[in-house]
Design a protein that fits this description.
mainly beta; Neuraminidase; five-stranded mixed sheet; five-stranded antiparallel sheet; 3 helices; signal
Length: 327
């Protein structure tokens, strides 16, 4: 699909374009292929594990605290020592039924929420003031695209993204799969509009198959501007890129994360000054629901900034036309 990228670097005087092509070269075999095993294989290092009673669905983090999240309870912890200092507690009778991780933006904790595993499938975004841990707002999607499992704001563009998960699993008392995993979609919300979807994508087929019978459970943007996602069970985090054409996300890298088993994840992006941090490592938070622990990991960042558009095909002069085939 793309050929001879490295020689093109010498022809590129524009530094942004040069970064684009170098980024492409660094991820070759994935950006243009997307098959399992062709992506970068990376490793994380566990920094610490901290007991957290609500570490069952996900985690959120800000400059001074992290937040362990269960279906209808959230505990606020001192980041430095893990001490639990405050809890928001819902009720088994609702109205909060199934939270799935979260992200903290300007003192507000945004949590994806659904009525999983009930039918019909409904979703909402719920918010809390992290200073008081009081619930502050709810935006209901009603019956929509699936179960909302994560939301996050891109650290440099300010645009919000999220995922509506669907499942191959047949829930108790039901006869059909809970939406089918292949219908899981990642969405971009309209900037400045209250959770209206602007665009959507699906995951590469082999990644969807690895999610099955569950789905994409977590997502968080790194300090490098790339999107990192997790499944429901695997001890892995996946780096995803947005395509310049079509509707299938690109599978850039797989990071081994042995202390977690899928679920909600959150990068510690505190201290950012508006400039992307690339080619380094950062603190990535996850959970072990089996041991009820929050896990902090040192994980690698990508060597280039996420979100740069990639060239789509090539414009060829007469005499260089290709027979690319097709059905």
């Amino acid at each position: 699909m793309f050929h001879n990228l490295l020689p093109l670097l010498a022809l590129c005087a524009n530094p942004v374009r040069a970064q684009l092509l170098q980024c492409s070269a660094n991820t070759v075999g994935t950006t243009y292929n997307g098959t399992a095993g062709s992506e970068q294989q990376l490793n994380s290092t566990t920094i610490r594990t901290v007991p957290a009673r609500d570490a069952n669905q996900g985690v959120a983090v800000d400059a001074t605290h992290y937040y362990s999240i269960d279906n209808y309870s959230i505990t606020k912890h001192h980041k430095a020592n893990g001490t639990a200092i405050q809890q928001w507690a819902g009720s088994p009778s609702g109205p909060i039924i199934h939270l799935d991780g979260g992200t903290v933006i300007n003192g507000t904790l945004f949590c994806p929420h659904s009525n999983y595993p009930q039918s019909p499938i409904t979703s909402s975004v719920e918010t809390w003031d992290v200073a008081t841990m009081q619930h502050t707002h709810s935006h209901s999607f009603g019956i929509y695209r699936g179960s909302l499992t994560w939301v996050d704001q891109h650290p440099y563009t300010g645009v919000w993204y999220g995922a509506f998960a669907n499942y191959d699993r047949v829930q108790a008392g039901q006869v059909a799969p809970y939406g089918l995993t292949m219908n899981t979609q990642l969405v971009e919300f309209v900037d400045g509009v209250d959770w209206e979807v602007a665009r959507s994508w699906i995951f590469p087929e082999e990644l969807r198959q690895s999610f099955s019978p569950m789905s994409n459970s977590g997502g968080s943007f790194g300090r490098d501007g790339w999107l990192y996602v997790a499944g429901h069970d695997a001890s892995e985090v996946y780096v995803m890129g947005f395509p310049s054409a079509g509707s299938i996300l690109t599978w850039v890298a797989t990071i081994q994360a042995p202390e977690i088993a899928g679920q909600g994840i959150a990068w510690d992006r505190s201290g950012l000054n508006g400039t992307a941090v690339t080619g380094q490592t950062g603190s990535l938070y996850g959970i072990s629901r089996e041991s009820r622990e929050v896990v902090e990991m040192e994980a690698p960042l990508q060597n280039c900034t996420g979100g740069l558009p990639l060239q789509v095909g090539r414009a060829l002069p007469p005499g260089q036309f290709e027979d690319v085939g097709g059905d």
